[in-house]
Design brief:
It contains five helices and six strands. The protein is of the alpha/beta class. The protein has one domain (about 5-185): Lambda Exonuclease, Chain A (Alpha-Beta Complex), CATH 3.90.320.
């Protein structure tokens, strides 16, 4: 393989990554404006009611003080960044911002949700599964899903891989959308 061919292929991957990110961010902005949209938080709450972890909203915000530029994922071998995501399913946008997505060579391989509390619950598991599903739908990939527990903004207690299949999560999301549609008609 020639150097020119390798350089051309690398440039092609960067362009594909940039186009995908532009599309996804455009979808996110459209979803935020649309009256036919629902947040990941709302969908996850309908799948599994959140419980109080005895912390405060402030503790949660401190744990989520993470910054990044998603477009850097296209020009670096490895990059972690918060990522706005959106996908339209059955005419309704599902959208939110994943805490961290790990890109390797422009491909999202891991989705991570940061939690300040130590023990996983059904809500946080549902939430990270939905973000992984959104990432899979937006980028035609199959990222792994992780909960990082005990996150204080610098360190964490442990990391838990959350199993999912895109088909199963999509079925759960469709079920929530049907229930929401029923509420709107009542």
């Amino acid at each position: 393989m020639s150097v020119t061919h390798i350089a051309s292929r690398a440039l092609g991957l960067v362009v594909e990554c940039l186009e995908a990110l532009r599309r996804v961010i455009s979808w996110f902005e459209e979803a935020r404006r649309s009256p036919r949209s629902v947040t990941v938080t709302e969908v996850a709450r309908r799948i599994a009611s959140p419980r109080s972890h005895g912390g405060s909203a402030e503790a949660g915000r401190r744990a989520h003080n993470v910054w990044g530029d998603p477009f850097d994922a296209c020009s670096r071998a490895e990059h972690w960044t918060p990522l706005p995501l959106a996908y339209r399913l059955e005419g309704v946008w599902i959208y939110g911002v994943a805490d961290l997505v790990r890109f390797v060579n422009g491909v999202p391989l891991e989705v991570v949700e940061l939690k300040y509390y130590e023990n996983p619950d059904r809500y946080s598991i549902a939430q990270v599964r939905i973000y992984a599903w959104l990432t899979a739908r937006c980028f035609a990939c199959r990222p792994r899903a992780y909960l990082v527990l005990g996150w204080d903004g610098r360190r964490y207690g442990h990391r838990l891989e959350v199993e999912y299949t895109p088909e199963e999560v999509e079925g759960e999301v469709k079920s929530v959308l049907r229930r929401l549609e029923g509420l709107n008609k009542a």
